[in-house]
Specification:
alpha+beta; Nuclear Transport Factor 2, Chain: A; 3-stranded antiparallel β-sheet; two-stranded antiparallel sheet; 2 helices; flat; zinc
């Protein structure tokens, strides 16, 4: 549940009214690295770099939460199903548990498109697959 504090310091922030990577210095346009801080994430403005950094952060958080969920003595799983404006069904699974620091934690295990018939067997199969992805067993 705890996120690392990552203060945005020693970073060059850009004026949002100008192009984020072009600055005037001594009358010449010069490209510089530009940073912005969003929540706890320090992001470069380049799309490729942002994607790479977000993929890395996602993998780190996924592993951290997986460890916490697997170490939990017990978990409670809730499911929610809804239909989008385009009439497409989705199923979300959420896991609630108490971590080692005795904090109540909630993590979304996933959201899946659910085009099949909404039978108990189909729901159980998709839920079991999502729980298997997180190594959550019936023990």
């Amino acid at each position: 549940c705890q996120r690392d504090e990552s203060p945005c310091k020693n970073y060059h922030f850009t004026d949002k009214t100008r192009h984020p990577s072009l600055h005037q210095e001594n009358g010449a346009r010069e490209k510089k690295k530009s940073f912005c801080c969003v929540g706890h994430f320090d992001l470069l403005t380049a799309n490729k770099t942002v994607k790479e950094m977000m993929a890395k952060k996602h993998a780190e958080e996924l592993e951290r939460v997986k460890r916490e969920v697997q170490q939990a003595v017990a978990v409670s799983i809730t499911a929610d199903m809804w239909t989008s404006l385009n009439m497409e069904a989705y199923l979300a699974l959420t896991c609630h548990y108490i971590n080692d620091n005795m904090q109540l934690c909630t993590s979304v295990l996933g959201v899946k498109h659910f085009p099949q018939s909404h039978t108990a067997d189909n729901l159980a199969q998709v839920k079991r697959g999502m729980m298997d992805d997180w190594a959550i067993t019936n023990e």
